[in-house]
Every structure is written in structure tokens, then in C-alpha cells.
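Running this now, will post back.
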Amino acid sequence: MKKVLVIVSTQPADETSFHWHGLSEWLGRLLDNVDVTITALDQLVYVADGERSAIYHPTEGYDIADFDLVLLRKVGDAIEYGIAVAHYLHLKGVPFTDSYLLTEGRGKLACAFARQEHFRTPRTIYASQQHLAAAVKNSSLQFPLIMKADLGSKGNNNFLVQSFQHMDDILQDLRDVPMIIQEYIPNNGDYRFLVLGHKLRLVLLRKGKEGSHLNNTSQGGTATIIDLKDIPSDVIKIAEQAAKAERLEVAGVDIIQDTSTGEYYILEVNRAPQIATGLCNDQKMLAYSTMIAEYLATGKE
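Update: finished.
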């Protein structure tokens, strides 16, 4: 018996509707020895954790990689989760439709699934607010944890949570904001790698203000320029490869070092890093101008 999973964007209020069951019923009639299951992107739990990654149904118990074929139908506004599903199935070697979803997402969850095949990223969990606490309990994550908006930026809606009660309080205040959970990486700041023309040009060490876990300069953090000679060559390679993997000639790659293990993690690959604004403008503009001059001199497109 072959197993097929059909995934739509959201579970309808009327579960007897054709939208929910029609396709699975037709496939069951037309194909022999096929068991068809249907679910929705908003019903799943997403865990981006390298080889231990999973996307599973919290009440039915199956992982979407358990199926012989996965059909993504009507992704719609839930495309970020469709992208996460596509990268996960690709990693697991499970056939699926459609492969156009193997692209870069905008949200942190989709990007975590896209990057994890090649780069170390913080363990990341997403589920509906109803199932998020249970998903964290089922994981190996321990408090404190980072909780932030999937589509957030500049440190907005980004929290260091200490307990399930703290998590629930935030969710009550942000009911309509999709939130992800990430492991907290102990650190002495994070690094903004300005990769221009696929070459590392400038590195800023950003540190949060006292009492804050946020290293963002937009949240009051400081930035210090680091000599490129002080950056390990393998970390430079990671930053340059991350920008290239996401087809970015202009990228701000944010990398953090775990002070307890020494390991480096990619936090973000920013597609529009601040250059003419923010801190260290002169140095950033010089690096950007150098890239432009090289392009003009070599005729690069």
C-alpha cells in the first residue's frame, strides 16, 4: 500500500467540504492500493534541527516524510510554510510537488529549513499557538529560549523567555503574530559580515546594551569594526558561501559564536543590509564603493 499525503494551506471550518476531502476521495477511487491522507500547513509542527529535523502532525502522530508522495495544493498565503515543507522533503529524499517551492523564504522558519542542509543554524520550532508549548516540551530545548516573530526584523517582537508561563503571556499579547521558538545561544555579541560581490568586506561585532539579549544596533546595541585578520578563515568561508547560496551579491550575514562550545551559527542572511544608514556608515560605504568599482572594472553583471 502506497501512502500519499495531500497538504493544503489551511484547514477549512467545514471539514466535509470538497476542498478538504474531494481530492483524496477521487485519488482513492482512481488509484489502486493507495492510502490518501489530507492535512493543512497550519496544522503541522515544524522542527528545523539538521538531521533531527521533523515536520509532524501533533495529534495524528505521523511525520510528513513517512509518505511515499506529498502533494502540496493551494499554498497561498502560507507559502513560507510550504517552502519549509519543500526543503524538508528534499532533505529527506521524499518526492513532492511542486519543486518551485525550493526557494528562499522571507521568514525565519523557511530560511532555517533552507539553510540547515549546508550551515549550522539555531534549532527552530514553529507550531500554531495551540500546539507550540507541547512542541517545545517534545523537543530537547531548555529554557531560556528565544521567541520571536517569524517575519520580524530589527529585534522587534523578540523575547528571551524563561518559562512556559512567560511564553503563554507573550502569545496572549500577540495572538495574530506567527511566532517561532529558537534555542538560546550564549554569546558575547554577534557578528555582521558584510559580504559584497561574494567577498567579505567588513565585519562588525555587535553587542547589546546591558540587560538585553538583543545585539541589534536598532535596539540600542553597539558596533565595533573587527580586523578581517582576526576572523577564522573557515568562518569567512561560511559567510561568503551563505551569501552565494542565497544568490545575494549584497548581503549582511549575521553569525553568532556559542561561548560554551565555540561553535558558530548563522542567525540571518539579510538581503538589504544597512549601508548608508546605521553605525559605521563611512566604512560600509567605502566597502560598497569598492565592490562597485570592481564590477565596473571587470564588467561583471
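Residues 137 and 164 are 9 Å apart (CA to CA). More later if anyone needs it.
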